[in-house]
Structures are given as structure tokens and as C-alpha cells.
Amino acid sequence: MDSISDDSSSWISSCFKTEETFSFSKLRTESSQRDYFRFNFQGKTFILMYAPKGIDESIESFCKKADVFKSFQVKVPEIYFRNDDLCHLIIEDFSDNLYQLNITQENSDIFIKSALDQLIRIQNIDCDTEIFDYFDLEKSIANKDLFIDFFCRGYLNLSDSSIPFDTINEGYNFILKRFYELPQCISHYDFETRNLIYLDSKETGVLDFQDAMIAPYALDLASIFKDLYMVWNKKQVDDWLDYYKKNTQNEEIKSIEDFKEDIEFCAMQRQIRILGKLSQVSITLNRDDRLNDFPVLINYLIDSMSRYKELKDFSKFLQIFK
Description:
The protein is an alpha+beta fold. The protein contains eleven helices and nine strands. The longest helix has 30 residues, at about 255-285.
């Protein structure tokens, strides 16, 4: 959706009981199937969200999970108006102060600990299967299939004879074995700096939570500590892990080293998923914004996989990208 239809404009005007003509500015979409537009009314900005019917990132999912998140004091945008026929929501504008564009080595301690406060609240949410799906084996295998179909075949343009299917399948199964041994809780599923905003209230605002599901506890931690835009040193990470460990209700975490390994395995699963998903978005929707993230993703995977003998062949395969 590149522009606002007359029907949408009329509906927005009716929401605010005005005949005023609104001006809309489209916000970046990157890999999302949703579109966002900012507009102003009486000195206050709002966000118009468009989520087309038939996609997983539905309006219903957004609204239902927003209610649950708010009941656990997670800072998500207020929903002001909803129109299912037009596939629209009008929601609170959290501003442009995205972590991705504003976090620095100097402010990182404040930003990351604030984000961890929100993450701990998310992980305290009840695992209600009426609302949240499990990140089950079927979904994980679908992630691997996207990696093969769109990253290997599509993005790298490899023929099947050049794709080491056994290496990929055996390596991915090794990752999943550890992945599914971990304690599970509610996961945002994409808790990275693109989806976090530092608010004037000194809290972290959480965006794009509609895909939240029940998954290994370290999956969202992997999004923060294996960040695509900032590299953290060991002292920083150890301090933040200690902060999380002291504040979480997760009593199954043992040593910091075991904790880091949990994050490592979740990060590898996540990075394989992202390579497949972003390749699919590039090929099918012609959205190439996130392809710049590929070198960081690949380097993370090569580095992590090289530490395990079961993944060394997978690591060598990925080096063709370099």
C-alpha cells in the first residue's frame, strides 16, 4: 500500500470527527508485509497501520496480543481506532527514537537494561495457547526450508547439486536438539533494535509483537546480544546477562557460560531463519533494504558454528558467501 485511499481518508476523518484533510508520510517497511503512515491531528501525531487480510501479521493478532502485553505492563502502543474492512488500525506514535538508530556505546547500558526490563515482563506472561502458538518443530523446519529455497536457491542462485543438503539438515537438527531442550516462555520473536524505541518516559516501547509465541527463553535474548547493528564486548554482555539473571523469574539458568551457550544456539536458529525470510522478501516483494544485514548474519553463523564439530561443515559452506 503506497498511498491512502479515499475510503481510508474518509474513515480517518470520521474517527476524529473532522472534515480536515490529512497529510500522510509513509514509514519504512523493510521486511514486513504491513505498511505504516504517520499523520498529524491538532498538534499530535498518530500512526495508521495497514495489515492486508490473509497474512499472519493480522490486525486481530496485533490487537489481541496488545491487550495481553498491556495487562503485564509491557509498553506497547495504544490502539485508538480499528477498521477490519479496511484492514486499518490507528495507534499511538512512539516517535522515531529507534534503538537501531540511536543506541551508542555511551548510552547502551541504559538502553539495554531498559529493554531487558520489558523482555522480563513479556516472559512473565502466561503461556495461553488460545492466544499464543508454539514455535514448534513444524515452524522450525519451515524456517530451514525458506533458507534452502530462497537463500540458497534464490539469493545465492545455487543449483541443487551445489547445495549440501545433508550438511544443512544434520547441522540444523543439531541446533534444534539444544533449542528445544530449553525452558519455554512467551517470546516476542523479533526483539531486536529495529523494534524497540526509547521513550521520553525512559521506558522502552515495544513494536511488532503480533508474531509473539511460546518459544525457548533465550530466543529474544539472542536478538539483543547478537545485534545486527552494534557489536558488544564481553564485559558489556556479561554485565547485562547478570542483570537479566538477577531480575528474571527463570530459575533454570545456571552458570553464565551455560546461559551464553543457550543464547548461541537460539541465535543460530534465528539467523538461519532471517537469511531465509529476508531472501524471500527480496525475491517476492522486491524489498532489498535488509540485504545489507547479510554479512553480519553470515559472520555470526560462521563464528558460532566453527566452535562445534557437528557444525563445521555448515560453517564452511557459508563461507562461499564471503
